[in-house]
Amino acid sequence: MQITGAASTTSVLRVMNSRAVFAEVFRLGKASRPELAQTTGLSKPTVAMALTHLERAGLLRQVGQRSGAAGRSALLYEVRPEAGWVLGVDVGRGYVRVAVADLLGTIVARKDRPSRGSRASTLVTQLTRLADELTAEVGIARSDITLTVFGTPGVHDAQTGALRSAPNLPGWDRPGSVERLAEVAGAPFVVENDVDLAAVGESAYGLGAGIDHFVYVSIGTGTGMGIMIDGKLYRGFRGAAGEVGYLPVAEGDPLQDEPASRKRGMFESVASADGVVSLARRLGMADAASAKDVFEAARAGDPTATRAVLHEADHVAHALAAVTAILDPELVVLGGGIGTQGGDLLTGPVRDRLTSLVALDPPRIEVSALGADAVLRGALAVGLTGARDLVLDRAASIATATTGQR
Amino acid sequence: MQITGAASTTSVLRVMNSRAVFAEVFRLGKASRPELAQTTGLSKPTVAMALTHLERAGLLRQVGQRSGAAGRSALLYEVRPEAGWVLGVDVGRGYVRVAVADLLGTIVARKDRPSRGSRASTLVTQLTRLADELTAEVGIARSDITLTVFGTPGVHDAQTGALRSAPNLPGWDRPGSVERLAEVAGAPFVVENDVDLAAVGESAYGLGAGIDHFVYVSIGTGTGMGIMIDGKLYRGFRGAAGEVGYLPVAEGDPLQDEPASRKRGMFESVASADGVVSLARRLGMADAASAKDVFEAARAGDPTATRAVLHEADHVAHALAAVTAILDPELVVLGGGIGTQGGDLLTGPVRDRLTSLVALDPPRIEVSALGADAVLRGALAVGLTGARDLVLDRAASIATATTGQR
DNA sequence: TCAAATTCGTAAAGGACCTAGCCAAATCGC
DNA sequence: GCGATTTGGCTAGGTCCTTTACGAATTTGA
């Protein structure tokens, strides 16, 4: 029953066409007027007009000529990388990653640091200093940052400004606490769940490129899932979509019959790093200290560790069976400490087990191409998209202002 | 990295504005020029021009005047209901429901019949005769139908024209078999999963009105789920999203420890009508013949039947816990035979159980407002949306043709 | 080295669309 | 019946885009 259809005046055409031209230049890297006229379907004068506007607004610049072919050589245009800057921040569990990228998405400065305490004030201080260092390195002011994107654990409630379900960031669940990040960023900033950003990163730069529906499943200290639907991030009603840690654990594992784990019965408690370690211990691998140990032992051929890994694969397969039954994704990307380290040790058994659990062929299952960088890259991708819109809006308002003055 | 931005010429403005005006008339029912100018933001002459075009194309008609207020009385316009017709078909398991609606969505003719066999040819014959009867009743030709929408079990693969996973429609899984429905419909028709259509119906006419993210869970002879995301139907990569029948069944139910059911371990096998009956029998209710019996007995106070219903609620809650963890919907609508008949007998325990299984507050859980009509209403809603676009496209092509001739 | 061919960039002309503003027509209240 | 008020229709004006056309720049070939 919903009927769409925005009414418009002629002036929106100019904006639309400018955006289209900019988008094409962005896509092609370098482009001439005739090329742009052809790909956008606009006429040469219109393209020329748009290019003039965009160049005057500082979004594009002329860059040499295309020679070699017969006839007059065409002037080439490209995006001015300095037309916008993006600050991406990955607030991880034990570390902090910060990077600055230009409008083309090229990372021009980056620092990774161990996290200095989890208290809000120390974290803000550390991030602010890192942002200062990075912008200085690039040679810009912090106010030149067009958009900042933070990736954090937990669910960010934009209404209250609180960060729920982020136990390793104590104090951030208070209403309004997120606003303290304004100190780090310039004016416009965005806070997004880290796993969601990893999914975006994988979509923009990794295995998810060009895939409409896929999920990024992170398994490490905790568990989480980022869902991309129609190429866009899906957050759910309250931003809690993809909280697979609360998936009821599937039956069929005799080890799960112990009362303690049956009581919890959640995916996170059995499949996360701690779950793998306790599983390996119960299987008889008394010296298992970390999930990494277990996977290394399994890779070395230890039969007990191998059994533990197979059990882990079984848990993951059951979770993915639920995801497949509900979402029918084209691709599942495994990330996080265990998802990445496990590699083919995990994907093989997961694929086998999943095949017997789902109706049709199971979705493709791959290990993240970006690894630990996924969140940061996702933050930059989100920032880049937003920054592009912001600078275009700014250019449009400049254009209308100048035409209005005449 | 994706950059949107369609380039446009001035002529698309006319189309856009005509659509906007039409949409407003549709929304308001009856509207005058000044009203439309105000709500669309367009000027009076533009609105007048659009109205003239739409009236000439037969989409709108003038209908009296608005009097009572001071000043000249305004001419009123409304959508011509006869500007388009929609045929909706619900191919159910034992029945067939067919209805014709006009462009306003008013059902003008409808017939429900027991399904005459499940063979493709007899079904097509029956549907064709029903369509003929209905159109005759309305006084239109079958070729006047703008768009036909079929709701069927199974997954329709538009690539091959096959209908997968629909065991009660034998023969329809052959490639190209769906094309036989062209005989029933006029030229343009759409085949959609029945549960998906029920979700759309609930979104257009039922409890889902105005809700962006919700799911419709059908529990009856089989199980299924329709997913609405951002107010649109989500189908998944291969159209198999929402196949909750394949959800791994959660642990924690001692009754499930019998080997037979553990082997299957799917939601459908335990939660569908057959599952309820066998569960009740195993609990000692030897005379349980149908799920309806069980629910009636429970409603009458039978303790064994009540236990069975509670177990059913537990299964449903576990499935919804998985759905909530993955999708975080705002609302869950229960439909299908069991979902509808169960009523508060089911929703109460489901809510209680679900609360203990999920992280945040559980989503709202309600029983379908449309009941057995949900699929048919959904078919009509989908058809209405499509028909509106079709007649607008047709009107636009007429308009450009006439302006081109001048 | 020079002319032909080809392509690019821009200017002018024309068409389509929308807005602003005016005036006539119609209606209601007094 | 008359004035206030609102609606409908019309005209003038402006913005935007496209088509057409022409000069400018470059390569190719002789």
Task: Give the SSE layout.
Two copies of one chain form a homodimer.
Chain A: H1 11-28, E1 30-32, H2 33-40, H3 44-56, E2 60-66, E3 74-79, E4 85-91, E5 95-102, E6 107-114, H4 120-138, E7 145-152, E8 155-157, E9 162-164, E10 189-193, H5 194-205, E11 214-219, E12 223-229, E13 232-234, H6 259-264, H7 267-271, H8 273-282, H9 291-300, H10 303-327, E14 331-335, H11 336-342, H12 344-355, E15 364-367, H13 374-405
Parallel strand pairs in A: 4-7, 7-10, 11-14, 14-15
Antiparallel strand pairs in A: 1-3, 2-3, 4-5, 5-6, 8-9, 11-12, 12-13
Helix pairs in contact in A: 1-3, 2-3, 5-13, 9-10, 10-12
The first copy, chain A, binds a DNA duplex (30 and 30 nucleotides) through helix 1 and helix 3.
Written overview of the protein:
The structure is a homodimer of 406-residue chains. With 406 residues, chain A is of the alpha/beta class. The first copy, chain A, folds into three domains: 69 residues, Arc Repressor Mutant, subunit A; 128 residues, Nucleotidyltransferase, domain 5 (2-Layer Sandwich), CATH 3.30.420; 163 residues, ATPase, nucleotide binding domain (Nucleotidyltransferase, domain 5). Chain A contains 13 helices and 15 strands. In chain A, the strands form four sheets. The first copy, chain A, has a five-stranded mixed beta sheet, sandwiched between helices. In chain A, strands 13-12-11-14-15 form a five-stranded mixed beta sheet, sandwiched between helices. A three-stranded antiparallel beta sheet of chain A has the order 1-3-2. In chain A, a hairpin with a 4-residue loop joins strand 5 and strand 6. In chain A, helix 2 crosses helix 3, helix 5 crosses helix 13 and helix 9 crosses helix 10. The longest helix of chain A has 32 residues. The radius of gyration of chain A is 25 Å and the shape is globular. Chain A starts with 10 loop residues before the first helix and ends with a helix. Chain A binds a DNA duplex (30 and 30 nucleotides) through helix 1 and helix 3. Chains A, B: Keywords: Kinase, Transferase. Chains A, B: InterPro entries: ATPase_NBD, ROK, Tscrpt_reg_IclR_N, WH-like_DNA-bd_sf, WH_DNA-bd_sf. Chains A, B: This is Sugar kinase.
